Amino acid sequence: MAKISNTTAYPTKSSPAGSDLVIGTDVAGGNATKTFTLQSIANLYGGSGSGTVTSVGLSAGTTGLSITSDTVNPITANGTFTLDGTLVVANGGTGLVALGSRSQSLRVNAASDGLEYTDSNVVEVVKNNTSSQILKGDPLRVVGEVAGVVSVEVAQANSSSSMPCIGIAYENIEGTSSGLMIQVGVLKSINTNTIAGTGSVSVGDVVYVAGARSPGELMLTRDKPIGVNLIQNIGVITKTGAQGSIQVTAIGRTNDLPNLAQGSIFLGDSNGASSALSIGTNTYVLTSNGTTASWAAATGGSSTISVQDSGGTPVTGISTLNFTGNLSVTSAPGIADISVSQDTIGISPFPIYQATHSVSTGSQTIIRQSVCESDVTFTKLEYFSIGASPNPISFAIYIGDITSSSSANLRASGTNATSVDGVNVITFSSPYSTSAGQNIVIIVSSQDTQSLAGSTALLSNTSISRGGSGYTSSFPSTLDGLTDGFASSVATGVCTHIY
Fold first, then answer.
1. What whole-number distance in Å separates Cα of residue 216 and Cα of residue 43?
2. Are 483 and 406 in contact (CB under 8 A)?
3. Domain with 209 in it: what CATH number?
4. Which H helix or E strand runs over 45?
5. The domain containing residue 131 runs over which residues?
């Protein structure tokens, strides 16, 4: 075939016709050079035939759309098709004709045959595990799962076996049927008057799972559960009335720290978890083994107090006072009194001297110093010496009403030849039993150099000692015979403990 390489030497036809010829190679004809019409080439790729377009049609098929066009003037060259309607879900559409409201979400409808716009609540399909209807608004708990669907029953706060609540019924759920449960969001069209509670229903009331309910009520309450009931807050009322609303937040757990029985305390374990330790037996004390705590019977011991004068100034030379029996301390104004009972026997040592009655014997005045608190048998007496002393000291106890000098009779006496610094004990020759309410007079005989802890309110000397230059180791049977030549009155304020 001849080669045409000079494209500018030949004229150009702007409007070629179908009968115009072009030169080409006939491959099937042994590569011979031949001429071809333009129409034959067009027929080769566009099909054969000729004519004009009279109309164009378009089908919507199963899309759910409708198509309209100009039926008066059918489209033969240029025109417009109009598509209308909604695209069905099967073809990737929504099947809806309008957009939902702000914050709404698109989800499958209850019949599972289309889509719908609803409020953006967190809801879940659940199955009623019972044969009874679950009411819209009832709290629900998990009991299992069937074919990927959670089985539920009504939650109840009176037992841990029926808790916690995982959500609220979004609708009435018939027995053994499936329905919706709301976990987060707004439950609307709920009668808030069916929620028990003190007083009238108000917006902002907290809603809890109830421990019980009356007929016509939901298993909900506006009162915080008490006693053995577990506590789980599942929402807040946002609208009251028959068409009320609850803002639901079901977190699926009860309070970490539940209600606590009267007298009980929370006790932590090695894992950091807490449990209730019930109140111990009467008079038991809380003890520790270094790891945990428990109640145990009191085993006694010593109590320590600071010794001060009536003005609150510590007494020189005294660090502490220790008592192994009962201790009762009346403090200065503004300071709480102290009362410690370590056993049921004894006489409160502070203040043991009441000085409400007195009687004279000779030139001295004997003061009623105490009243026995209970029926008690005593064998010993304790006193506190301010510093060690080589001097002897004697104590005597008289029982009786002080109406005359001979009315109080000697019942016990004892002597220490020396005293150590601190607590000293005198053991009486024989025990003696007293009755509650009996008047007791305690007499002490010591040297001037002996300072004993006591109350300055009943003494004339600042050293808080018995005072006097004489010494008596043998007391008379009645108070009128107590004329041992002491210079100062026997208005002693020495602190003692009898047991």
1. 85
2. no
3. 2.40.300
4. helix 38-46
5. 122-249
Asked, as a colleague might, if the bond just before 333 is cis with ω within 30 of 0, I would say: no
Paired tokens of 16: 């070629």
Polymer length of the chain: 499
Ramachandran angles phi, psi of 345, nearest 5°: -120, 140
Distances in Å between the Cα of 483 and the Cα atoms of 238, 363, 447, 494 are 90, 8, 16, 19
- 230 occurs within a structural domain: yes
Q: Choose the weakest-confidence range: 79-93, 205-219, 260-274.
A: 79-93
Q: Which two tokens stand for residue 21?
A: 């010829």
Task: Assign residue 369 a region (left: φ > 0; alpha: ψ between -120 and 50; beta: otherwise).
Answer: alpha
Q: Cβ–Cβ contacts within 10 Å for residue 35, how many? A: 10
pLDDT tens sequence across 432-443: 888 877 777 777
> Checking DSSP bridges between strand 122-128 and strand 149-154, what pairing results, if any?
parallel
Tokens of 448: 């001037």
Write a three-state SS string for 3-54.
CCCCCCCCCCCCCCCCCCEEEEEECCCCCEEEEEEHHHHHHHHHCCCCCCCC
What is the mean predicted confidence (pLDDT) over 371-387? 77
161 and 234: one domain? Answer: yes
Cα–Cα dist 495/306, whole Å: 14
Q: For 77, phi and psi rounded to 5 degrees?
A: -135, -70
Render pLDDT for 392-441 as a digit per residue (tens, 0 to 9): 888 878 787 665 555 678 888 888 888 888 888 999 888 888 887 777 77
Tokens 């320590």 -> residue = 304
